[in-house]
Amino acid sequence: MATRARQKLKQDGQLRSYISYFQSVMTIGIVNTAQSVQEAEDKAKQKFAAEDLSCGIVGQTPFEISETEPWSPDFAGCYLPTDDTNANMSFNLNGTTREKIAAKLDRSADEVTDEDFVDFVKGALERSLS
User: Fold this and answer.
1) Which residues contact 74 (CB under 8 A, 6 or more apart)?
2) Does residue 114 form part of some domain?
């Protein structure tokens, strides 16, 4: 596995969501009889395009972690039941989503308050349900 530089993140002991990516390499070998390398490659391409892997060898490397980074989706919501009859929803908007909402409100992201964002999301949800 290749060594990669990790971005230094401030560690403050707070729980955060992270996403880890796993990768594997798959190799498919297609066996052909041919008079040249070019002819063999052409036949292999035709078989592969037709999904004819009857004369093939398939191998795959084990999955290895390739990267882990903080997970920051455009919009993340969390359902928080408070008791048997009531529940709340907590959500996070990243900078890109905040900028898009501000543009819809014809204001800069710095001018839009958290309450404005909540009202916008609430209104969008209500409109989608009516």
Assistant:
1) 93, 94, 96, 97
2) yes
13 assigned to some structural domain: no
- Could you count the other beta carbons within 10 Å of the beta carbon of residue 3? 5
Distance (Å, whole) CA 90 – CA 117: 13
The 10 Å Cβ neighbour count of residue 31 is 12
Cα 32 vs. chain centroid, distance in angstroms? 38
Query: Could you give the number of structural domains in the chain?
Result: 2
Does residue 96 register a pLDDT over 60?
yes
Estimate the crossing angle of helix 95-104 against helix 114-129, to 10 degrees.
70
How far is 94 from 100, CA to CA, in rounded Å? 10
pLDDT more than 90, % of the chain: 37
pTM: 0.46
pLDDT at 125: 86
